[in-house]
Amino acid sequence: MAQHATIALKRTGAKMPAVGFGLWKVTNSTCADTVYNAIKSGYRLLDGAGDYGNEKEAGEGLRRAIADGLVKREDVWVTSKLWNTFHAREHVHTLAKKQLGLWGIDYFDLFLVHFPISLEYVDPSHRYPPEWWGDDKKVHLAKVPFQETWGAMEDLVDLGMAKNIGVSNCQGSLLLDILRYARYEPAVNQIELHPYLTQEPLVKLCKTLGIAITAYSSLGPQSYVELGADKGAQNLMEHNTIKSIASKHSKTTAQVLLRWAVQQGLAVIPKSNNHDRLVLNLNVDQFTLSEDEEKAISSLNINLRLNDPADIDPRMAIFA
Ligand SMILES: NC(=O)C1=CN([C@@H]2O[C@H](COP(=O)(O)OP(=O)(O)OC[C@H]3O[C@@H](n4cnc5c(N)ncnc54)[C@H](OP(=O)(O)O)[C@@H]3O)[C@@H](O)[C@H]2O)C=CC1
Ligand SMILES: O=C1CO[C@H](CO)[C@@H](O)[C@@H]1O
């Protein structure tokens, strides 16, 4: 099996695979098989979260791959995330334990605070997977200081439940604030990043601080609703700039978009329910974009954010 690129994390030196498999919207009924086949095809990182609602099925696929001798537990990097309703100190440990139980494993390679937004606690025995909204379909903000949540995340490291901890959807100012009090600095910031949202200042800051970046939604807008048509956006996989670069390298447009991120030293976690696409997405190591090609892709930036919690409730504005 070909060796794929990895990114060394600062505190532990752990090598995180640069291309992983994203689990959001991976269909529950096929998730175990999809994960098994992803591992069989060479994926060594799975990116889950409490609210994706498929941790049990993903764990089944992983454990079947281990039982069949395809991999050992230590060969597969499992990332998961703490949902916004569980930020209070007393809930972090309980939820991490529950999520590990669903996966059927005893540690996460990386556990992330999913959003720097705390919502009112909802008992997981009442509703799991968790959501943005309460029973009344309204968002209920809570006031848990991030320092409290981070302290509880650090305890997970001490307890051996998470080998690395990090954040997601965090702006530079919050990262700098966390560094004031962290015993364990965030290893990773998982953020939306694609040619329409290149996030250059944040990428630069994370590089300076030694915080690795995982880019999500690397393929850009997928549906009409997400297109940002008012900003002139279109499906990036159909964009002429990407198409002409892809044809020069005899690659798919998706591979070019993923390569563009990986070549910047970022990790990516593409998701696909389709086996052929899943296989193609992993194979972005065998070609290099020229500097001009990289620049042409980066110049498509229009600061188009597809995943902004403020779209759900304006009080959740976390991006400048
Ligand atoms: N931390 C966070 O807040 C967030 C994290 N994430 C993580 O990032 C992962 C990836 O992000 P996501 O937003 O799902 O977006 P992606 O950019 O990975 O994929 C978007 C869509 O593109 C389609 N697709 C995938 N590969 C190809 C291909 N080669 N050619 C054509 N179409 C393709 C897929 O549909 P199909 O299945 O039909 O192939 C998929 O639904 C998530 O699964 C999740 O793990 C995502 C959003 C937020
Ligand atoms: O990661 C995810 C993708 O984005 C969604 C919308 O904000 C989140 O709910 C989900 O957790």
From TrEMBL:
NADP-dependent oxidoreductase domain location: 19-301
Entry GO MF terms: oxidoreductase activity
Classification via Pfam families: Aldo_ket_red
Active site, per annotation: Y52 (proton donor)
Keyword Oxidoreductase: yes
The family this protein is said to belong to: Belongs to the aldo/keto reductase family.
Originating organism: Daedalea quercina L-15889
Binding site for substrate: H114
Protein name per its UniProtKB record: Aldo/keto reductase
InterPro entries, sorted: AKR (IPR020471), Aldo/ket_reductase_CS (IPR018170), NAD(P)_OxRdtase_dom_sf (IPR036812), NADP_OxRdtase_dom (IPR023210)
